[in-house]
């Protein structure tokens, strides 16, 4: 199976060089995301055999804006939800619900502490279904003492990630790698391939049998990661070609 992040891994905004790529997402009549025609062709081939699982921080609404390919499984909201044929997986939903019930440090305690650091550098904040939180930030004005708060998060079993202008606060029991492990066990998979571009993808790609990361990725450069030779939208083609080469006997 092929587990992959979407944005900046397989699909790209016009912040990247877009030529004759396929428009795959619109919002209010505005073009949002594109995909290489070659990547799309290869993904559809995988989808026909239920071999592709998208893994994204997008909400269900945001994920469903993406057209052109349908998958049996989709991991959304950073692993907080798993879709099976477009419907919420109730078993995983129950697991996440129970994890929230048993959570030692609730979100109100996190935000009470965060008030000490908030300021004009926070441009927008979003609560994603009471599961995790993200902020649009002014990266040039992050407080010098913010690492004190990040240490507080870590001590209290929360994770954080800064990706460009987005900053995430997520409880540790919500993660892409945990959701991937659930699907892997459910499908009795022995070997799988993973790709992603951010630190929210790091553990997911490290636990995979094989990984390939876009050269332009913001992910921490740690041992065990493999990078494409190409950047931008062409990296997605290289990733799919590598997967197909490794798992050719399954796909054909």
The total domain count is: 2
Query: Treating each run of at least 4 consecutive H or I residues as one helix, how many helices?
Result: 9
Beginning-to-end CA distance, first to last residue: 14 Å
CATH superfamily of the largest domain: HAD superfamily/HAD-like
- Helical coverage, percent range: 25-40%
**Structural class, judged by helices and strands?**
alpha/beta
Question: Count the strands?
Answer: 13
* CATH first level of the largest domain: Alpha Beta
Q: Could you say what the CATH topology of the largest domain is called?
A: Rossmann fold
Strand order of the largest sheet: 4-1-12-13
The biggest sheet amounts to: 4 strands, parallel
Mean pLDDT: 93
Specify Rg, calculated over alpha carbons.
Answer: 18 Å
User: What is the succession of H and E elements?
Assistant: EEEHEHEEEHHEEHEEHEHEHH
The low-confidence parts are none
Strand content: 15-25%
Net shape? globular
Q: If you had to describe this structure to a student in words, what would you say it looks like?
A:
The protein is of the alpha/beta class and about 250 residues long. About 30% of the residues lie in helices and about 25% in strands. It has helices at about 35-45, 60-65, 90-100, 105-115, 145-155, 175-185, 200-205, 235-245, 250; strands at about 1-5, 20-25, 30-35, 50-55, 75, 80-85, 85-90, 120-130, 130-135, 160-165, 165-170, 195, 210. The chain is globular. The model has no long low-confidence stretch (mean pLDDT about 95).
């Amino acid at each position: 199976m092929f587990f992959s992040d979407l944005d900046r891994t397989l699909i790209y905004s016009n912040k990247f060089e877009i030529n004759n790529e396929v428009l795959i997402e619109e919002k209010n009549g505005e073009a949002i995301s594109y995909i290489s025609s070659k990547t799309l062709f290869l993904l559809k081939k995988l989808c026909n055999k239920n071999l592709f699982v998208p893994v994204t921080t997008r909400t269900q609404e945001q994920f469903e804006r993406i057209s052109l390919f349908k998958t049996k499984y989709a991991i959304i909201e950073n692993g907080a939800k798993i879709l099976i044929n477009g419907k919420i997986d109730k078993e995983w939903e129950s697991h996440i619900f129970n994890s929230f019930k048993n959570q030692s440090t609730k979100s109100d305690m996190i935000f009470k502490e965060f008030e000490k650091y908030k300021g004009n550098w926070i441009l927008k904040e979003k609560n994603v279904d009471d599961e995790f939180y993200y902020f649009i930030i002014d990266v040039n004005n992050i407080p010098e003492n913010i690492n004190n708060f990040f240490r507080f998060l870590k001590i209290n079993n929360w994770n954080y990630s800064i990706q460009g202008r987005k900053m995430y606060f997520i409880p540790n029991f919500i993660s892409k790698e945990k959701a991937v492990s659930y699907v892997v066990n459910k499908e009795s998979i022995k070997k799988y391939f993973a790709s992603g571009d951010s630190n929210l993808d790091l553990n997911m790609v490290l636990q995979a049998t094989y990984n390939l990361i876009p050269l332009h990725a913001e992910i921490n450069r740690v041992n065990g990661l493999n990078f494409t030779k190409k950047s931008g939208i062409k990296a997605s083609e290289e990733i799919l070609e590598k997967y197909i080469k490794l798992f050719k006997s399954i796909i054909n």
